[in-house]
Amino acid sequence: MLPARLRPGRLLSAPPLRLPALRGAAAASGEPARGRGTARAEQAHRVVASYKLSNFDKKILLWTGRFKTEEEIPPRIPPEMLDKARNKARVKACYIMIGLSIVACFAVIASAKKAAARHESLTSWNMAKKAKWREEAALAAESKTK
Questions:
Q1: What residue ranges in the chain does DSSP mark as E strands?
Q2: Is the separation of the CB atoms in 33 and 26 below 8 Å?
Q3: Per residue of the chain (146 residues), what is the pLDDT tens digit?
Q4: Cα–chain-centroid distance for residue 12?
Q5: Cα separation, 64 vs 91, whole angstroms
Q6: Is there a contact between 75 and 60 (Cβ–Cβ < 8 Å)?
Q7: Interatomic CA distance for residues 30 and 8, integer angstroms
Q8: Which of 79, 78, 81, 86 is nearest to 60 (CA)?
Q9: Which of 46, 67, 120, 132 counts the highest number of beta carbons within 10 A?
Q10: Long-range contacts of 91-96 (CB under 8 A, 24+ apart)
């Protein structure tokens, strides 16, 4: 059997929390008591974070479809909106690169089939290149001996 502190029903049967009593004007108006710096902290949390956009950021927002025209884009936006747009642009760019890689693979396959039909291969190209280098080296050695 589990000890009493580990039993599942223990949390439901716990006594309610007792909050400190309100004092002064806060008790009369029904508002919660505030400390010294809480007013400033609340104001700081009410300010919406904003980000000033560069031209590149505006292009990203347009490309990802967040805004239709550049005139619709406000001068400042929340950073979360820009992060979402950048992530969407990053994914789109990856999809474009994947598509271009697949197209390039098919282009290489097609050119390799054409080269095979002409009986060309990398081995024959390398052998011809090395034969040409040997001839040039032989001519250079012959011209030095003269």
A1: 51-52, 76-77
A2: yes
A3: 666 666 665 555 555 656 566 565 555 555 555 555 555 545 555 556 788 899 999 999 999 999 999 999 998 999 999 999 999 999 999 999 999 999 999 999 999 999 888 988 889 889 999 999 999 999 999 888 87
A4: 44
A5: 10
A6: no
A7: 36
A8: 86
A9: 67
A10: 92/63, 92/64
